[in-house]
Amino acid sequence: MRTTFYALIALLLVSCGSQQLTKEKAAEIISKKYPKTIDWEVFTADPKHAARALDSKLEDEGYIKIAKTQSLADAGKPFISFTDRSGPYLLPVTDKDKEYSIQRVKVSELHFKEITDVVEQADGKQTIVEYTVEHRHNTPFAKLSHYKLEGEKKERAVFTLADDGWKMVEKK
Question: Residue 144: which domain range?
Answer without folding.
Answer: 20-169
